[in-house]
Amino acid sequence: MRNLKRIALIFFFAYQAVAQEVKVVKYETLQDVIAAEKDKLIVVNFWATWCGPCLAELPHFMEVNRENKDNPGFKMILVSLDQVRQLDRVKQLITRRKLDTVHYLLDDNARMNDWIPKFDPAWSGGIPATFIYRNGVKVEFVESGLSKTELKNLISNHKN
After folding, report:
1. Do 105 and 22 form a contact (C-beta atoms < 8 A)?
2. What residues does 42 pair with on adjacent strands?
3. pTM
4. Residue 20, class by beta-carbon neighbours within 10 Å (0-12 exposed, 13-18 middle, 19+ buried)?
5. What is d(CA 143, CA 40) in angstroms, rounded to the nearest whole number?
């Protein structure tokens, strides 16, 4: 029984570790992360815990991410636009929904009118919003929820 409790605790803390990997960053750091990923196709999705359409599409994103887990030329990044004071809520949602990918929380609301058009001049700031980058260069932008099929099609349009 004692060993079972130890094993349960190990799994609990390992499971919690997934939620601990949310990096709080400013716009410039996020841009540097994207630009540094040479020779990769990167899917960057902006979302928030309070956004219904965002939450609805996240399972599709995770399915596509799992399908590409062995592809060294693919990376998915989820960027939360929640307030920093909501970081624990973001981590809990990531853990509960098993969002197994790279996570950032963009702590730059005061300058949103500056950085939103730098991602794309057509972006109103609405979420969900998805950007696809190939070798650090933006090749696709969608400001709406995506189904699994739509996301897969966008990715396949830019694979090579």
Report:
1. yes
2. 75, 133
3. 0.86
4. exposed
5. 22
29-58 pLDDT, tens digit each = 999 999 998 889 999 999 999 999 999 999
Cβ-contact 55, 151 below 8 angstroms: no
What residue has token string 């963009």?
106
Instruction: Give the Cα separation of 89 and 67 in Å (integer).
Output: 27
Neighbour count for residue 75 (Cβ, 10 Å):
19
Residue bearing the bigger pLDDT, 12 or 39: 39
For residue 74, pLDDT beyond 50: yes
CB-based contact 42:133 (threshold 8 Å): yes
Asked if 94 contacts 55 with a C-beta cutoff of 8 angstroms, the reply is no
Distance CA 143, CA 5 (A): 46
Number of residues that this document lists for the chain: 160
Nearest to 99 by CA among 132, 130, 131, 59: 59
Class of residue 134 by CB neighbours under 10 A (exposed 0-12, middle 13-18, buried 19+): middle
